[in-house]
Amino acid sequence: MKFKNLFHEYVPVIAIDGPTASGKGTVARLVASHFGFHLLDSGALYRLAGLAAKQHQIDKNNVSALVSLINNLNFFCAGGCVQLNGVDVSTSIRHESVGRMASAIAVHAPVRSALLSRQYAFRKPPGLVADGRDMGTVIFTDAVLKIFLTASAEDRAQRRYKQLIQKGFPAKIEKILCDLIERDSSDSNRTSAPLKPALDARLLDTSMLSIGEAVNRIVVWYQKIESHTSVVKVNFD
Ligand code: DC
């Protein structure tokens, strides 16, 4: 008998959700690196789909074309590098217009379903830190630790402004704030997997915390959970 087929290795997930520019990308990367875990930037997958849709001039509401596009999406996403069809798009997917497209196509349930298996594929030993909008509520509901990062819209706009300027993109703070409020509203009010904290999520307001302090809090929370978890960790499915 092959026990390997019966017992899957337990792969812990730390889910970090929150609105745009809440700092979750940086925090998730640092937490993953601290524990040597894999990292899923689910927003990058939605952005890749948004960018590909723009390249193919697919309308944001043409759901069947979007699903077929996603099913054939040829991408690579690891170690901070994002490629679409072998071309490095790490910088271009961060453009505000791509973010808006990502948010617009993300309202469609079939689009979200088409991205499910792509996201599950990131869950590999020794563990995963998953960052997005619905990591704790929909994708990894069995995550051992769920965090909901928040910060005021003004603080987030300031952060996004600095990021864009650093990357050499033109940016206006008022426009960023308007876009961000619009995107928050679209992400939070959609019917399919809206942005909201999981019932068992811990809220972490980053307005008054440095990135290092936020990371440290999550690291300590996870270590406490791990030390209380029983020795046998097996998924039966
Ligand atoms: O995290 P981000 O700003 O890179 O995400 C871009 C958009 O993708 C976001 O506005 C909504 C969508 N998204 C989503 O609907 N669900 C996720 N898990 C991640 C992102």
Report on this model:
With 237 residues, the protein is of the alpha/beta class. It has one domain: 3-Layer(aba) Sandwich (Rossmann fold), CATH 3.40.50. The chain has helices at residues 3-6, 24-35, 42-55, 63-71, 96-105, 109-114, 116-120, 135-139, 153-166, 173-189, 211-228, and strands at 8-9, 13-17, 38-41, 75-78, 81-84, 87-88, 128-132, 145-150, 202-205, 234-235. Strand 4 and strand 5 (81-84) form a beta hairpin. Helix 5 (96-105) packs parallel to helix 10 (173-189) and helix 9 (153-166) crosses helix 10. The longest helix is centred in the C-terminal third of the chain and has 18 residues, at 211-228. Mean pLDDT is 91; it is low at 1-5.
- Order of neighbouring strands in the sheet with most strands: 3-7-2-8-9
Radius of gyration (CA) equals 18 Å
N-to-C CA distance? 17 Å
CATH class: Alpha Beta
Each distinct ligand: 2'-deoxycytidine-5'-monophosphate
Unreliable spans? 1-5
Beta-strand segment tally: 10
What is the CATH superfamily label? P-loop containing nucleotide triphosphate hydrolases
What is CATH's topology name?
Answer: Rossmann fold
Q: What would you say the CATH architecture is?
A: 3-Layer(aba) Sandwich
Mean pLDDT: 91
Outline: globular
Write a brief caption for the model:
This protein is of the alpha/beta class and 237 residues long. It has helices spanning 3-6, 24-35, 42-55, 63-71, 96-105, 109-114, 116-120, 135-139, 153-166, 173-189, 211-228, and strands at residues 8-9, 13-17, 38-41, 75-78, 81-84, 87-88, 128-132, 145-150, 202-205, 234-235. The protein has a single domain, classed as 3-Layer(aba) Sandwich (Rossmann fold).
